[in-house]
Please model this.
Amino acid sequence: MQLHRMQREERSKAIVNVKAKETVKVRTSPKTSATALGIWGKGKRGGICNDGKAYKGGSYTACGKKSNMWYYGGDKVNGWVPKTCINW
Model:
């Protein structure tokens, strides 16, 4: 898949020490129906890959906002997280 290749190629371009506004699920793809790989706890520091670029995915309401933009990153495990819940 093109997306997975892109994730591997750009993984080294991470923004570090980013905090989650709320506890969020880290998912296998950028949609709320995707399998959760783990969680990124509220206030915990993690990283956002791809120079902090957000990607379009499934629509959601999280952390008080509606959006369809997602980051790839996490604290203990990497996956897709809702952009509205990440302080960066």
